[in-house]
Design brief:
- It is elongated and about 70 Å long.
- With 198 residues, the protein is an all-alpha fold.
- The longest helix is centred in the last third of the chain and has 36 residues.
- The model has no long low-confidence stretch (mean pLDDT 80).
- 18% of the residues are buried.
């Protein structure tokens, strides 16, 4: 028996290989059935229409919720999320791309502010007393926190975009599902090319 990560990986395979989709969906249904002995899929009301938000993170949340607490409602949400994502074509989502563009601009503005403010804070720390030094440290920490929060949101959008385009490798997907995603570098956050040794 697999776990929730196996199901998400199988949904990704079904998206990338439409010819194998029926076999993969059968395998997914077997995994869902084996997750609980007290939930009967035939009595879960799966044919009732239900709206779900599309996307990778909704799929992960729905399948994880079912494995954490198998019941007819969580099974229904998981099945609808799986069905919606498994048949979605591998192509960009304009809404995600628009949000990435907005976040890109915001990250660049934060990068410019940080680039101007940090040297000023560093110089001021030499010329000021202890109270101003503490204030400088607090301002620097707030800036770093803002970059971290925006970077995390940006990273989620990049994962969602790669999921939509089917450009994630199996290893990348498994790392994300295992909670070991590779976070964006400072160069990606600031929107500048990474230096190379060439």
């Amino acid at each position: 028996m697999g776990d929730w990560r196996t199901i998400v990986s199988l949904v990704y395979k079904a998206r990338r290989d439409p010819l194998e989709r029926p076999r993969i969906l059968w395998e997914i249904s077997c995994h869902l059935s084996s997750a609980s002995s007290h939930v009967d899929p035939t009595r879960a009301g799966l044919l009732l229409p239900q709206r779900t938000h599309p996307g990778f993170y909704n799929l992960v949340e729905s399948v994880y919720s079912y494995y954490r607490d198998p019941n007819p409602d969580s099974l229904r949400r998981a099945v609808w999320a799986i069905a919606g994502e498994a048949v979605k074509p591998c192509m960009p989502d304009p809404r995600v791309e628009e949000e990435i563009a907005r976040r890109d601009k915001r990250m660049k503005i934060i990068g410019v502010i940080m680039g101007l403010l940090l040297p000023a804070l560093f110089i001021a720390s030499f010329l000021a007393n202890v109270a101003v030094g503490v204030l400088i440290v607090v301002v620097g920490a707030m800036l770093w926190y803002a970059i971290r929060v925006e970077g995390s949101r940006y990273h989620r959008l990049m994962v969602e975009e790669a999921w939509n385009k089917c450009t994630l490798t199996s290893r990348d997907l498994w790392n994300i599902l295992s909670g070991k995603p590779s976070l964006p570098s400072i160069f990606e956050i600031l929107g500048i090319p990474e230096p190379t040794l060439d």
